[in-house]
Design a protein that fits this description.
With 362 residues, the chain is α+β, with helices and mostly antiparallel strands. It is built from nine helices and 15 strands. It is 25% helix and 16% strand. Helix 7 packs parallel to helix 8.
Length: 362
């Protein structure tokens, strides 16, 4: 209202000589006192458009009615101070959060060429039996007779001394040392066996120093369903193609032996979760790798939410997804020219590359 009072229209109305609240002669513009709230709002909007067109800096306010994290009173005070300093000011609304696409009918949904089916399900983990931790690690290690003069990065004791691990003692001598064959990092065998026993026990091993993966890494994602299809709408920044929509659905349940608190119930907030990829060549490649990650139970985990602080709940597991369809206000939407490359790097860090696609076919 204060801004509306400074518009040229109101100034000319006041110049007629009539005191506030008294109408002017017939045919002249009304005075400020005779204008109701809707008239003032229309005048303010009209003035805002003039200021925007002239390149005047704006003060963004998401919602002038009060239901906003940006307090309208704060925006009003800012406007008053700028006006007092002789600076023009305009209150505007920033872009809206657009999480979902326009409604899509079943007839408009298409399957994805080159990818069989349109849904994947995961069940409870099938435990691998028959191999002890020592047998698993034997495939990835070489024994070192003369340890280097450095620390074991697991127990932080010298490699030339016995392992400093104090937990349940594995059936390995504490002074034996081994070198991982791919990355050549050296550890106490005692420490590596203890680390394996504290992990997922899936037959794989990840170097604690450089994160190189040995074998096929799997996760602890609880049972659920992953759907995927094409919808006839384009993402911002990808106007030349349609959109791949992924829908994840995981129900609440009870934690298994591989989870943080076996036997305790866990929650699953925000499901079904909708995610989006451009239906381009690279977008389809990402989807194929996400399917591998889903089958290996690496998309989600059970832990503590970094957003709400809730424990024993389903959380994302280090592979970022885009959950905004038509905006990027939270950083989880489009346009984002680096997203596809970034998520490919995150998948590779979990041991999922194009080679994984060939392994899955085999």
């Amino acid at each position: 209202r204060r801004q509306a009072a400074s518009t040229p229209a109101l100034s000319s109305a006041g110049a007629s000589g009539s005191p506030p609240g008294v109408g002017s002669a017939k045919g002249s513009r009304p005075s400020l006192g005779t204008l109701n709230r809707s008239h003032l709002q229309r005048l303010a909007i009209a003035q805002s458009r003039v200021l925007i067109a002239s390149g005047v800096p704006t003060v963004p306010v998401k919602n002038l009615t009060g239901s906003s994290p940006v307090n309208p009173a704060l925006a009003g005070i800012t406007g008053i101070l700028m006006s007092a300093a002789g600076l023009p000011v305009c209150l505007t609304r920033p872009p809206k959060l657009v999480l979902h696409p326009p409604p899509v009918s079943k007839s408009e949904i298409q399957s994805i060429p080159g990818i069989s089916h349109s849904c994947r399900k995961t069940t409870k983990k099938q435990a691998k039996k028959g191999k002890t931790p020592e047998e698993v690690l034997k495939k990835y290690l070489q024994k070192v007779r003369h340890p280097p003069d450095e620390d074991c990065t697991i127990c932080m004791e010298r490699l030339s001394a016995p392992s400093g691990y104090k937990g349940p003692q594995p059936a390995v001598k504490p002074d034996l040392v081994g070198k991982l064959v791919k990355c050549s990092h050296v550890f106490h065998l005692h420490c590596l066996v203890a680390m394996y026993n504290n992990g997922n026990k899936d037959g794989s091993l990840q170097c604690p120093t450089c994160k190189t993966i040995y074998g096929v890494k799997t996760g602890t994602q609880p049972p659920g369903k992953m759907e995927y299809h094409i919808i006839p709408h384009a993402l911002p920044g990808h106007a030349d193609c349609k959109t791949i929509r992924i829908i994840y659905n995981i129900p609440p349940g009870v934690q298994g032996p591989e989870h943080p608190n076996p036997g305790k119930s866990f929650t699953a907030r925000g499901f079904p979760r909708h995610c989006y990829l451009p239906d381009s060549e690279k977008g389809r490649k990402v989807l194929k790798l996400l399917l591998v990650a889903w089958d290996r139970r690496l998309i989600f985990a059970i832990g503590t939410s970094s957003t709400t602080g809730e424990s024993d709940t389903v959380i994302w597991n280090e592979i970022h997804h885009k959950t905004e369809f038509g905006s990027n206000l939270t950083g989880h939407g489009y346009p984002d020219i680096n997203y596809l490359d970034n998520v490919l790097a995150e998948l590779a860090a979990q041991g999922i590359t194009e080679e994984s696609l060939a392994q899955e076919k085999d």
